[in-house]
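Exercise 7. Given the encoded structure of a 399-residue chain, write a plausible sequence.
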């Protein structure tokens, strides 16, 4: 038997490598090879091979390292007694020579007892089989293989989740504007930072014609993947529904019904949507979103809510409101991740601090106003990780 301290030290080293080794096509091959290198002589284990599940059988996909003199089956039937034993027990040692897996002739001179584990991710299942040479100890083999199986499964699951989140991130990233529209007489800038890889904040721009353009900002409840899915639905719904000849009230009420009837009907999304004429006339609907602030000279106006958040009820009462933006006026839209940013004492950044930052920088270009808001809120929170999604859109009418 291997000395316990040595055994645990080597096992810990192998498990760490499973968590750290580069993922990809050779991931399982590398683990099989490392097991042989680290425990080959101590546990009398080696000759690893890998089978991958196909439609009706497991197919050998690995090189026959250390098994050159043994006649190996390249296919294992799903319904075979050996495969059923592996799948039922997850780890199985074939120490009965009348009950084997993969070795065509158990009477061969070089025959060794097979030990197998099964691992899987969301889409694939594999069987890893090792050859146990004379002198192996059951307790050591079972403990080692069970630990390896658990860590590999966790790693494969983590990779699957990570890949799905990466895909969701790329989808969400493709839906948010990559640049601001060029509108005669206006400066526009926006940015969004998610608390997680994906989030529930949105903003978007719409150019209807040479005299009118639109924009929105929204915040789906919660954060993470469910919020991101709801945010995606809102962005796509608005892009499909907004046209020159369709009124905003009609479009937004229809969007509310779609969100309410979706699988995420227990969630909701706040939304500020506006249409701007080049002469500064701004018509907007604020469906439960934090009130944007409009600064002109030394006066600050809050564009308060004109209706409920989307998804709360099947039918909601929305009304349109109006404000005039004069040359030099700065409109700042934001999500609550900005004003609810907390410092170490639990104090929030708050609306008044936001107003102070905008008032102080109102004569700057919109990119500088935008950056100053994020910088001030970030510093207020001591540079700590953002706990909620944070989005800001700044529109300035040029003098």
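Solution.
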């Amino acid at each position: 038997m291997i000395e316990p301290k040595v055994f645990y030290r080597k096992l810990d080293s192998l498990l760490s490598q499973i968590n750290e080794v580069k993922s990809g096509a050779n991931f399982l091959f590398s683990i099989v090879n490392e097991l042989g290198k680290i425990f080959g002589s101590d546990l009398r284990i080696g000759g690893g091979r890998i089978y991958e599940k196909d439609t009706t059988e497991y197919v050998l996909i690995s090189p026959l390292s250390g098994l050159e003199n043994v006649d190996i089956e390249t296919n294992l039937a799903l319904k075979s007694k050996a495969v059923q034993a592996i799948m039922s027990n997850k780890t199985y040692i074939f120490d009965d020579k009348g009950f084997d897996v993969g070795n065509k002739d158990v009477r061969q001179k070089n025959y060794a007892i097979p030990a197998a584990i099964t691992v899987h991710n969301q889409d694939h299942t594999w069987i890893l089989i090792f050859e146990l040479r004379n002198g192996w100890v059951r307790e050591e083999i079972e403990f080692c293989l069970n630990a390896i199986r658990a860590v590999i499964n966790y790693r494969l699951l983590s990779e699957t989740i990570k890949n799905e989140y990466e895909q969701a991130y790329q989808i969400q990233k493709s839906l948010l504007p990559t640049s601001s529209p060029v509108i005669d007489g206006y400066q526009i800038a926006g940015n969004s930072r998610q608390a997680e890889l994906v989030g529930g904040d949105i903003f978007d721009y719409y150019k209807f014609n040479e005299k009118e353009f639109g924009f929105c900002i929204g915040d789906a409840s919660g954060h993470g993947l469910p919020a991101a899915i709801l945010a995606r639905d809102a962005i796509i719904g608005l892009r499909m529904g907004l046209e020159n000849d369709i009124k905003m009230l009609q479009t937004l009420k229809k969007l509310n019904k779609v969100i309410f009837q979706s699988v995420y009907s227990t969630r909701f999304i706040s939304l500020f949507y506006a249409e701007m004429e080049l002469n500064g006339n701004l018509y907007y609907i604020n469906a439960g979103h934090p009130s944007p602030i409009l600064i002109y000279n030394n006066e600050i106006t809050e564009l308060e809510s004109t209706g409920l958040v989307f998804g709360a009820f099947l039918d909601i009462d929305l009304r349109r409101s109006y404000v005039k933006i004069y040359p030099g006026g700065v409109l700042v839209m934001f999500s609550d991740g900005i004003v609810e940013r907390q410092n170490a004492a639990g104090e929030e950044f708050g609306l008044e601090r936001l107003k102070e930052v905008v008032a102080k920088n109102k004569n700057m270009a919109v990119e500088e106003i935008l950056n100053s808001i994020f910088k001030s809120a970030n510093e207020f929170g001591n540079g700590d990780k953002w706990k909620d999604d944070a989005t800001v859109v700044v529109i300035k009418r040029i003098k």
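Remark. Confidence is low (pLDDT under 50) at residues 65-69, 104-109. Students should compare their own answers with the one above.
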